[in-house]
Every structure is written in C-alpha cells, then in structure tokens.
Request: fold
Amino acid sequence: MVFSVLDLLCFFLFMILPYSTIAQTSRNISLGSSLTARNDDNSSWASPSGEFAFGFQQIGKDGFLLAIWFNKITERTIVWSANGNNLVPQGSQVELTSDGQFMLNDATGKRIWYAESAGTGVAYAAMLDTGNFVLANQSSSTLWQSFDQPTDTILPTQTLNQNSNLYARYTATNYSRGRFLFALQSDGNLVLYTTNFPQDSANSAYWSTKTDTGFQIIFNQSGIIYLASRNGSVLNPISPNAVSIQDFYQRATLEYDGVLRHYVYPKSTSSSAGRWPVAWSTSTFVPPNICLSIVEGVGGGACGFNSLCRLGDEGPICQCPNGYNSIDPNDALRGCKQNFVPQSCDQASPETDLFDFQEMQNTNFPGGDYEHFRGVTEDWCRQNCLNDCFCAVAIFNPAGDCFKKRLPFSNGMIDSSISGKTLIKFGKVNSTLKSAGGANTKKKDNSTLILVGSVLLSSSGVLNFLLPVITYLVVSRVYSRNAKVNQSHPVMSGMNLKYFTYEELKKATNEFKEELGRGASATVFKGVLVSDNGKCVAVKSLDTKVRENDLEFRAEVSAIGRTNHRNLVQLLGFCNEGQHRILVYEFMSNGSLASFVFGDPMPNWYQRRQIALGIARGLLYLHEECSGQIVHCDIKPQNILLDDYFTARISDFGLAKLLRMDQTRTMTAIRGTKGYVAPEWFRSLPITVKVDVYSYGILLLEIIFCRKHFEAVAEDEDQMILADWAYDCYKQKKLHRLFKNDDEAINDINKMEKYVMIAIWCIQEDPSLRPTMKKVTLMLEGTVEVSAPPDPSSFISSIL
Reply:
C-alpha cells in the first residue's frame, strides 16, 4: 500500500487527536422497559441525537432482527445485530428486566438471546451517539456494551482487541454468519479468512498484515483505522484517510463478498435517498482483488464451486460459465450447477460429439488438477479433455502445459494478469429427461383415469352396458386433445427444439412489454422462462403482415435449428400457433456489436481481435462445417451479438440462403443491408458464400477502426467511405491516420496492418479473388501468411 507524503503527514497529525475520551450523552432506559417486534417504525430506542437507534428491524418476510442502525439515513444501515442466525416473529420482545437482565424472547416467551453482563448491578441501559449500546450501573460504569460484541461492522471510537472477530453476513439481506472472517489473532496478526461454512471456524487465509505485535484495531474519531501495538504505536494503517466524524457518518464493514470496506456518508445529505459511497479508492479495498487473493485447497474460492470471479468497479462479480446456471440467484457465492447431462464414461460410446468447449482468455482455476501434461499442443490438450469423461476444465498455457480438472472446479478467476487459455466443457444439447418424464406422467394420468372409470362403472349391470360407449368417448377426447396439441406444435425433423405455446411466451415476456430491437419483419422482446429457473431469452415475433412471412419463419427455423457452434446464437425453440410465428433464442446480455464497437469507451484491441476471429469461425461453420451449407446474406454489426463474456455470436438467419451439398451457386433477389452488400448482387450474378466474405471484410474494417463503413460528416471527403480510405492509407503506409486516441492499436501497427490486408482481400470486387472463410480464419490465427492485396476497385463507392 503506497501513500503520499501528504497522506502520511495528515495521518500522523490526526493520530495525536484523542479518541478514548469522547463525551457521551445518553437517554437512560430504565429497568422494566421493553420493545415489541411489530410492523411499524416505533419499536426502537434512539440515541440522544437520533443518529443511531436500537430495536427491531423486519427482514423481508423472514422475521425480525434485534439490531442497531443509522437512524437518520434513508437506508437504515444495520451495524450490529443480536440474532442474525435466529430471526424472531412479530410479537417477540426485548426487555431490561427489573433485576437487570437484558434478553430477547420470542412470541412464545422462549429466550433467544441475552447480554452476559460482567457481574450484577445493572441500573439502566443507553443507546449512545457513538452507535454503542451499553448496560451500566449506578456509577455509570459500563458492564456490557455492543462494541465488545461486534458482528460485521466497526464504528468510529470503537476498538477490537486480540481474539476479536468480525463475521461477514451470509448475503446482502441475510444477517446470519457467512463465509468470511476478520480476526485479530492472539499472536498479533490481523487476518482475513474464508470459513468452513456453515461452521464458523477459519478455513483459508486470503489477506494478512503479517505482524506479530498487533494488539488493537482502532477506529479513531478522525476516521482513521489502524492496527496498533501494545504501546499504541501504528503498525499498519488499514484506512489512512482522515474523514471528520463531525461531518460524515462512517463505518467499516466486512461485506458478504469477503471484502472489508470503509464507507462514509455526508451528514448534510443524510435525509436523502442514496447508497453509501466508498471512502477508499478501488485499489485499496482489503484485499485489493479478492478474486485473485482466494486460492483455497478446500473450498470453492471467492465465488463458490463451478463459478468465475472478476473484479468490477464496486467489488467482485460472480458469473457462471456456459452450460452452468446459478444454484441460487439470491446467493451468487453459492456457485453454479451443470444444466446439461454429464458425459458418459462408456468406452463404446464416449459421446464426444455432444460436447464442446467455451474458450476463455485471462481465466484460471488454481488448484484441483488431477492430471498435468507437458510439451503438448492446444489441440492435443483439447482433444484429451474431450475424450475424458472426468475432465470438466482444461488449462493450456503457451509453454505447452495442459492441466485437467474435474467437477466441481474451484477458485475460478478472470483477470488481465492471467495468461494462457481455459477450456470449459459444456453439453451442446440440454437434457430432455424432464420433459420426457412429464409426457410419461400425462400418459399415465390418462390411463389411470380410464382405468378408474372402468372399475367404477363395472359395478352396475346397467352401467356395464354404457361402459364401452363412455370409455370410447373418454379415449376419443384424450386423443383428440393430444392431436390438437401436436398440430399446434409440428415436429421438425433433425432438430432438438422446445415447442412453446403462445400463452407461455406471452407470460414470459410480460405480454411483450420489454422490446430489445425491431427489424423490417420482426420485433425482439426480452423474456424470462419461469419453468427454466428464470432463464432470460430473446423472443423474436415475426410480423404477420409481412409478405411470405411463413417462408421466412421456416427458413430461419430450418437454418438455425440444425446448427450448433460457439459463435452462433442458439435457437432454443419456437411457436407456430395460428397467426403467431415466434422464435426463442439465447439472451445475449452484452447487446450487439454495433453498440459495443461504435460506443464509448472504445473496446480494447485484444477484445476486437477476439471478436473478429469469433465471427470468422462462425461463418466458416455455416459455409463448410454444418450439415447444409448456409449463406447468411446479412452480416453486419447489428446481427453480431455478444454474450456474457463478449464472445461474438452470429444471429438473425431470417435472410439465410440454404444451398444443397451439390449446389455452390444460386440466383436470388437482392438481400442484405446497404453498405455490406457484395457487388454481384447488383449485377444479377450467381450468389455464393463469397457474398458473406465481402460483408465480413467491411465488418472487419469497422472492428479494426471502431468507425462505421460510411460517415456523411467527415473531416475530408476522402474519409467518408471507410474501405476507400483504409486502402489509400494502407498503400501510403499511413494507417495511423485512421486511429483516434487508440494508442494500443498504434503500438501494434504491424498486426493492425495484417488485419487491414485481410479485410481488403475480403472486399475484392471479383468474388473469385476473395478468400474462403477457412483461409480468412487461418490468416487471422497466423497460420497462413497474408500477401499484399490488390486494389479492391472503386466500385465500392457506387453501391452506397
């Protein structure tokens, strides 16, 4: 931790201010007083200034917490609690009895908590303006105080002695003891631990002061927090920023995510709504980056098992990799679970074709390796993990090391300082066992209904006569109903898609309220599938008024339903019910490439390279690797979406043109978007996969330079058309003119030039000169050399 001379000077000047002799005023709470938990704001005792209060706070619908909180702030932040592990119901009572006992009883009179006072003689209680609640005798000597029994927070004027602990709460709204512990040990070392949750004992240390003479943690009235030795000297300044307690409310809290934070809140704005701002800069959180700090031999790491931790602006963010869902959406630290059927270990059928890998850079899962291979290639590492039913994650580094990890994997972390590549295995197709079970149950219910009816009716001679007729009617009704359902959801062979009813999708989208985007023939809405653990989806409703809508619907379902690739948006299901033609896709949380590349701030050069490569791989799959060759026909930034990890996913196959395996060219009307359309569209020439290569070339230039292919307002007329300007700058060796405030790209100008050369090859007027997407991918990967491209011709400008 580095401090300026001014910081240190201020720190030591404030150190000489007294912190142990603050005058206290209080409103004495007499013997026999009590508070009852109820649904109002009157179940509390306030301090003389009204800044703190002691009493009951209702925690959602779970019950009541006996607590101390900041009373003048709209967000009445709790700083101490008595019964976090055991909330009490309405009607419970805390009482200072006539004989000086201070206890909490539930509504039945059962004792839940009590204050163990030192000896007898309690005469009164008081809520002080420091935030300390005390029990005192007639001489005003303190017999018990909340400052000696901290939970997750310390306040100005409070000290923690050796063997004192702070326990993080379980979640933001659950005040039971959680997964992290802040301890000043008897050996003088101040340590942050993970716990052996649900036990309170320490598990693994992830930060410490490495001292052996620490005696007290002091939070003085100047707002400075430090570790002091027995003689009072400063050993470690934990929060050296001096902030007046006269002007600011302050607290230091061990948060549920394991980070110790020092907060301040201006008293002048205490009556307004708002969150506590953090006093420290991000780099001085304790620890600075918890994602990298926690590497447990036993335990799930900072975010739990099968999860990944990355540092955001306000602390750690937990996320699940592809193929995994959060176990509890209300508890991100609980980890993630698989949402696919695990790989079979049957040697005769290893099912390798049903699994793929999510590639992640700057990612690691330290520890937990069960195999380590040296001197291998990435492809070898990938295939070895794919063939191994126990392998859930493979880590490959540039030195040729391959590490394999089994489930559950732990200590997941994402950070720019991490090198190498992580491969996380996931199932391409989700399990259908649940839906199959549902169908069997329905069939079983129908059979049971018929059987029970037969038994009941057979007890009468008259009814025996009617039995065949009634049975026939029941069976006919059942099969008729099933037939109607099947007609509403026609099965399309060769695809594993879910069939949704219109009512399901209407409910999932809250009656189609949240619009994500709108095109010429469809509108996309955000939806939430309650039946799938609240999974977010994109629901694309085709416009029923558009001509040949049914053909477009069938084209898109046919095109996407049979594809599966990490760089394509996955179609999850569809609805074809009456006039309603709706497609249900994966939800891409980071929106379109257009908003990412053309927005502010500019994405870094590494991200842009990965996106460009991902799009190329997706097009290669469509052109050469899927069961039927597909020409997308509308490659543009708006049709490239970004998932949680900013992986590029090609979307919108509504304009896709499928080619038979023996067909490489086709004639069709002009499709696509102005500016990205290949010249052959305008010359009535046969259309091939090379039209996508052309569109990709224009898109690649946009990715490289983070500007649109055409800008009507430009410094110079020569700069309006990006493709022309890029070629001119390339020929003149002046590519740096295309970059605005992009030092990273300028410093990597040789690679930038290579990417520009690839783009120019892609936008050649003659389709035969354009490379295939396979060659484009190899050039981007560096496997194939990039030769100098010819002039793509001035025809580009005529099509805008």
The mean pLDDT is 81. The two ends are 56 Å apart (CA to CA). Residues 10 and 242 are 7 Å apart (CA to CA).
